[in-house]
Each structure stands twice: as structure tokens, then as C-alpha cells.
User: Fold this.
Amino acid sequence: MVPLTWYLILAAALFCVGLYAVLARRNAIAILMGIELMLNAVNINLLAFWRYTDPMVPTGQAFAAFVYAVAAAEVAVGLALIVSIYRNRETVDVDEINLLKW
Amino acid sequence: MTLQHVLFLVFGAVALGAAIGMVTARRVFHAALWMLLSFFGVAGLYVLLEAPFFAAAQLFVYMGAIGILIIFAIMLTRGMMRQRLPRVNDQWWFAGLLAAVLLGVLAWLIWQGPWPVSAAAVPEGSLHRLGTVLVDPEGYALPFEVASVLLVMSLIGAVTIVRER
Assistant:
């Protein structure tokens, strides 16, 4: 069987790539894609721990299912906000969206 | 080096390589396509973890629903794609440094810890057990209902936010 550490390190790498996308990209949609990548990394961890500790107890699977639901809700609201901002401000560049900045 | 190791390396390389392609892609539409490929690699990893339900859900929910939503949003905000702006902001080097340091710390922690691993096989009907525990009041019935309420509320909210006024 593949060692658990391989899954954990791959998930950590995916999480850090997503973190870089969130912090560095200018396009709001690209930032949202980075968040999706981070949620995916978390799901890999949840399912890997479920598989490698006690597969009889479906706790890890249940949490992964909830992460799916929350990811779907998050992307729907996030994209709605981005489309709404684009209508009002004609941009999706987060450097120019500074209405709430003081 | 068994077949599982080879498949893990293949799917892991697809997931990670496509993720890196996603953050470095110049056009956001290409980034979305890379993201779909990365999701596919993760679905392969779920098959290796003997969670075929989650592999299928990954294909339907992430590659299907979320991918289509993101591509729709890119099409609706097309003006951004024509401009020749740099694709990263001024703090990109700091963000890269932070991500690299975090990866180093996480990898070090993962390498250190002795993880209590059991070699138990996945029992028959694990999907059945998951379905039971999700609607069991002793299990996750309350979070399950809260998740359904959250989904309905977010869909209503999304419609309200983008409605023309």
C-alpha cells in the first residue's frame, strides 16, 4: 500500500499551490479556483486518514461529503458576487476592488 | 514499487502538475482547464484510496458543476481577458515565499510524526455505512440537514445577488 505520508505531502503541496493562487493572482475568479484547490487538498487528507486509520468508522467520509456541499455553496455565492461586481465596476481585478478599504 | 505506487505517482503528478499549470497560466480560461485536469487527478487518487463514491462525486460536482460555473463566470467577465495586465499582483514574491515556507513546515511535520496507520481493508458496504451515518440522529443527521439548508440558502443568495435591478 502507498504510505500515508505520500498522500499527506501531496495534499500539503496542493494546498500551498492553492494558497499561492489566492494570495498572488489578480483575477478574482483565479482566486476562487485557488480556494477550490485548497478544499480539494483538505478532502484528500480527510479521505486518506479515513482509509489509513479505521475504515470501519465513516467519519472521514462524512466530513469529506460536507466539504463538497460547502464548496458548492461557496463557489455559487462567490461567482455571483464576482459577476455582480463586474456589472457594477467593469472589472474583476481585486487590486481595483477597494470600496471597503480605508 | 507496486502498481498502486505507480498509479499514485501518475495521478499525483497530474494533480500537482495541473495545479502548477493553473497558477502560472496567463489566461484565466486556460487556468480553468488546468484546474479541471487537476480535479481529475484528485479523482484518481480517491479511486486509489478505495473511495469510488467520492471519485464519482469529484467528477460530477467538481469537474461538472463547479467547472461549468467557473467557465460561465469567465465568459460573463470577458473584458478582463483582453487586457494585457500582469496576472499576479505586486506581492507575488511574498505569496510564493509564504507558500514555500508553509510547504516546508508541513512536509517537515509530516515527515516527523509517526502516524498510527492500520492496514485494515475497507469493509464491504462502506458506502452503505456512510449513507446510514449521514441520516442517523446519533451520527451526522444535524450537520447533514444544516448542509442542505446552507445549499438552498446559498443558491437563493446567488440568484438574489446577480439579479438585474
Notes: Chain A has one domain: 4-89. Helices of chain A lie at 4-24, 28-52, 59-89.
